[in-house]
Amino acid sequence: MTLLQHDLTDFTADAYQNNEIKQVRKDDLLGHWSVLFFYPADFSFVCPTELEDLADHYDEFKQAGCEIYSVSCDTQWTHKAWHDANEKIGKITFPMIADPTALLARDLDTYNEKTGLAERGDFIIDPEGRVVAYEVISSNVGRDAAEILRRVKASQFVYEHTDQVCPAKWEPGEDTIKPSLDLVGEL
């Protein structure tokens, strides 16, 4: 089953951001592009390297009109403790969503029932709250923020230019492809 075009469930979740506990709702993701970035757990091994990479690219995501929301099944208080204790995580200024009931992890099929943790999954969400791209990978392999950002920009381009598609490794400003009308039904 694919999650493409999946409409996010309505949710309200606590999040840690900039030394505050706040609530994030589905409505907060509407009207702009978002990345929901699931990871297994705070105080772990690969996760801080991924989240630091996202923090290092955060300004570029914001310039592209995209908000990052990291998500794990930890609580907002665990996020705060990790943020305060880890130099890499201390760089984070985007919302760190707490999903201790796994509502979001289950909605996007990243919840691992055996471990009680979310798998590594990143979901690009369009301004209407629908999944337009996603990747779920093994918990022992980290992801690359630059590639996620490239996919956000490509998704934005085709969202605005529905008659065009982006080839592999496409970057903004490069040539796109206008599919032949005869082949559109085969895409």
TrEMBL record:
Give the record's keywords alphabetically. Antioxidant, Cytoplasm, Disulfide bond, Oxidoreductase, Peroxidase, Redox-active center
List the record's Gene Ontology CC terms alphabetically: cytosol
* Entries under Pfam families matching the protein: 1-cysPrx_C, AhpC-TSA
Instruction: Report if keyword Cytoplasm is assigned.
Output: yes
Q: Which domain of life, per UniProt?
A: Bacteria
PANTHER family given for it? Answer: ALKYL HYDROPEROXIDE REDUCTASE C, THIOREDOXIN PEROXIDASE
Query: What is its subcellular localisation?
Result: Cytoplasm
Taxonomy of the source species: Bacteria, Bacillati, Actinomycetota, Actinomycetes, Bifidobacteriales
Record-stated family: Belongs to the peroxiredoxin family. AhpC/Prx1 subfamily.
Q: What is this protein called?
A: Alkyl hydroperoxide reductase
